[in-house]
Amino acid sequence: MPEDFHFLLLPGFSALGFMSAVEPLRVANRFRTELYRWHVLSIDGAPVRASNGIPVAAEAACADVERVDTVFVVAGFEPLACYTRALGDWLRQQHRHGATLGGIDTGSFVLAEAGLFDASQPLTVHWEALAAFRERYPRLKATQELFEIDARRITCAGGTASIDMMLDLIGRRHGAELAAVISEQFVVSRIRQRSDSQRLEIAARYGVHNRKLIQVIGTMQRHMENPLGSDALAQEVSITRRQLERLFSATLNDTPTRFYQNLRLDRARELLQQTDMSITSVCVACGFESPSHFSRAYRARFGMSPRNDRCATR
Prior knowledge:
This protein is an alpha/beta fold. It has helices at residues 15-31, 85-96, 107-113, 127-136, 161-174, 176-185, 202-206, 211-222, 230-236, 241-252, 256-274, 279-285, 291-302, 306-312; strands at residues 3-9, 36-42, 48-49, 55-56, 60-61, 70-74, 100-104, 122-124, 141-143, 147-150, 153-156.
């Protein structure tokens, strides 16, 4: 019997994350006799528009489907905008019936909101939403992995990581050789492991190769709520503050203070756009000394106030 996968698409879902999950199933069927079937669901049975504006037809409303074997919730920005008690009830019902539940991109938010993760159960989301997830669900074990497969929970960061997740699942069920054949069809030269990084390494992202600079940027990223001063950052890599400033200026045409502040402002924007945290709470979480300082810095970087930026995305 073919294995059935259901995909519950939420408005604004990631088209890339969805198609990257479906296409490996299609190619698997090309090389073996109908190993998989897939079905598209929506909340109300109507077509669902992806974040890129393309509508995708649904076969049914999720409430009209009594039982599934595996269902992936596929979401994008604002994954909880369409969350309802009825949706949570349906997902919990599938769990009680023994279904495997999955989340693609930010789909894990929906499963978490429905109370479908144990505190010890690893899960993942798209890196851009990770901080927001951890703020909203601090007791859950959110990781930075490409995907997590644990008992009856499968979560994935979305994007092309959906390919790697599906190839892993196909390899477990039907062998590594078939997974490799499918990978080659997509001109993917290496199947990534779950522990591979979601993001480019610091060196590639910022175009830097100095080890001390890379280490300092990593330290900045780990200390957002309680920022370290330039002296402390310099001590981390055994150089003087002046040497650190010259290093930033020569390599990034920036100062350590401004670079660090921009990292924290970028994090603040993620939290404002993807959570319901108050502006004051975001200010504190990102290490700003006062709401007024935060608002001035935010406006200088993004051209609008934190409040207006949040309203523009809702």
